[in-house]
C-alpha cells in the first residue's frame, strides 16, 4: 500500500529550480534513504513533503489524499512527522515537556496527561528517560538529536522523515540508532525516510531502497547497494564504489 506519492513535483526560487519534476512513491512500513550532495535538493524535497513549501507544479498524495496545498499542522495531524538537521528544542522547557509537544500536536492529538505519558515511553526508547526533567537546553548535541527523534515518534506518525539524524555520531551511536529505528518501524508499522549526505555505510544498513538526488532532479532510484554502486552515482556523487 502506498503511503506517499509524488508526481512531477517542482519547486522554484526565482530562476533556481531547486526540485525539478521529481516523482516517487513510498510503501507503508518501508525504510527509504534520500541521498545526494549538498545543494542537490534533498532539504527542499523534505520541505515540500511536510508542508514548509508548496510545490509550483506537481502533486503530493498521502494515503491517497491530495495534500499538495495543505499546511504543516494539517499534515502533522494526518501522520507526517519530521526531525531537523539542527535540533530546535524549547530550551527552557524540560526534555519531557519538549517530547510531549509532539504527542499533543501530531497524529496522536493527546491530552496533556496522555502526552506526558507518551513522552516518558519514547524517552525510555531513546535512552533519555533519566534526563526527562532536565532543561532541554542543557542536553548535548547528540542528546538533542535523540530528543528530536523521541518528539517525532511521540506524534505517532505513519511517515517519519529524518533529516541528517546520524550526522556527527560515532559508529556505535549510529548502529544503536539504526537498530532502534528498525525496531520501531517493525513494532509500529511506520514508514521511515532518512536523508543523508555522507554516511553511505549507515544508509546501507538501514534503507531497503534509496533515491539519489542531483541538481534538483532524481538521478536514480532502487535497491540501495545496487544504486549506490551505479556508475552514474559514483561519477557525480560518491567518487568510488561501496564495499558490499
UniProtKB/TrEMBL annotation:
Q: Which InterPro entries match?
A: AAA+_ATPase, ABC_AA/LPS_Transport, ABC_transporter-like_ATP-bd, P-loop_NTPase
Keywords (alphabetical) are: ATP-binding, Nucleotide-binding, Transport
Identify the Pfam families for this entry: ABC_tran
Q: Which GO terms describe its cellular component?
A: plasma membrane
Drop me one GO molecular function for this one: ATP binding
- Give the top-rank taxon of the lineage listed in the UniProt record for this protein: Archaea
Enumerate the spans annotated as ABC transporter domain.
4-240
Stated name of the protein: Amino acid/amide ABC transporter ATP-binding protein 1, HAAT family
What's the source species for this entry?
Answer: Archaeoglobus sulfaticallidus PM70-1
Amino acid at each position: 500500500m502506498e503511503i506517499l506519492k509524488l508526481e512531477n513535483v517542482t519547486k522554484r526560487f526565482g530562476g533556481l529550480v531547486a526540485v525539478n519534476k521529481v516523482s516517487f512513491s513510498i510503501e507503508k512500513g518501508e525504510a527509504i534513504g534520500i541521498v545526494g550532495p549538498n545543494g542537490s535538493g534533498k532539504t527542499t524535497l523534505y520541505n515540500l513533503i511536510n508542508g514548509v513549501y508548496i510545490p509550483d507544479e506537481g502533486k503530493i498524495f498521502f494515503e491517497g489524499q491530495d495534500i499538495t496545498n495543505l499546511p504543516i499542522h494539517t499534515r502533522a495531524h494526518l501522520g507526517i512527522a519530521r526531525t531537523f538537521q539542527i535540533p530546535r528544542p524549547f530550551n527552557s522547557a524540560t526534555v519531557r515537556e519538549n517530547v510531549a509537544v509532539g504527542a499533543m500536536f501530531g497524529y496522536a492529538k493527546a491530552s496533556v496527561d496522555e502526552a506526558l505519558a507518551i513522552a516518558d515511553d519514547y524517552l525510555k526508547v531513546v535512552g533519555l528517560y533519566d534526563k526527562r526533567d532536565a532543561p532541554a537546553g542543557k542536553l548535548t548535541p547528540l542528546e538533542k538529536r535523540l530528543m528530536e527523534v523521541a518528539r517525532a515518534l511521540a506524534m505517532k506518525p505513519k511517515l517519519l522523515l529524518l533529516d541528517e539524524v546520524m550526522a556527527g555520531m560515532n559508529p556505535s551511536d549510529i548502529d544503536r540508532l539504526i537498530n532502534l529505528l528498525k525496531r520501531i518501524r517493525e513494532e509500529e508499522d511506520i514508514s521511515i525516510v532518512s536523508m543523508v549526505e555522507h554516511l553511505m555505510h549507515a544508509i546501507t544498513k538501514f534503507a531497503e531502497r534509496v533515491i539519489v538526488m542531483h541538481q534538483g532532479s532524481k538521478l536514480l532510484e532502487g535497491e540501495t547497494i545496487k544504486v549506490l554502486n551505479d556508475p552514474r552515482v559514483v561519477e557525480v556523487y560518491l567518487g568510488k564504489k561501496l564495499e558490499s
